[in-house]
Amino acid sequence: xxxxxxxxxxxxxxxxxxxxxxxxxxxxxxxxxxxxxxxxxxxxxxxxxxxxxxxxxxxxxxxxxxxxxxxxxxxxxxxxxxxxxxxxxxxxxxxxxxxxxxxxxxxxxxxxxxxxxxxxxxxxxxxxxxxxxxxxxxxxxxxxxxxxxxxxxxxxxxxxxxxxxxxxxxxxxxxxxxxxxxxxxxxxxxxxxxxxxxxxxxxxxxxxxxxxxxx
Length: 215
Known about the structure:
Layout: E1 7-10, E2 44-47, H1 55-60, E3 66-67, E4 78-79, E5 94-95, E6 103-107, E7 110-114, E8 128-139, E9 142-154, E10 163-173, E11 187-195
Antiparallel strand pairs: 1-10, 2-8, 3-4, 5-8, 6-7, 6-8, 8-9, 9-10, 10-11
């Protein structure tokens, strides 16, 4: 099974910019003087995050991938530990309410917009709550923002953090001789991960190995 490595990880929640390492600016007090645009010299731009998988965490965190046997508990599973650092020019900031303080709940095909922090679906289904991503915009030294829908989380009224649905999807692929693009390798298995407890754990400069939730 280890011969099938590497894994291709796709993050479906985040608006992305091209891969380029950058330091996120400080965003309090509506001042953008410490922010820089993706285009060198530009002063009017959206400050977008750019999420990626930490390959070092995939390979080494929690002693690396764990391969289970073909029978018994967790039969034929491959478990990996990963993390998702932000290398973009803007912060990744999410919240359960929009700028008007309203929440959006989804109950099957029904959509409910309310200010209520707790909601139970009338049809008996488990509520899913829309996540709003705050996108910051730099215009000279002025910082503004807009809140846009960015996927859903499973609603938990007993928690204060976000369980983001489909935070990552993964495919395990068989390497092919002469094919350099892993996306063209045949898929052996697929999996996914709910983003549990979406919070800042480390800064990229503060840790060489960033461990996240197990998949």
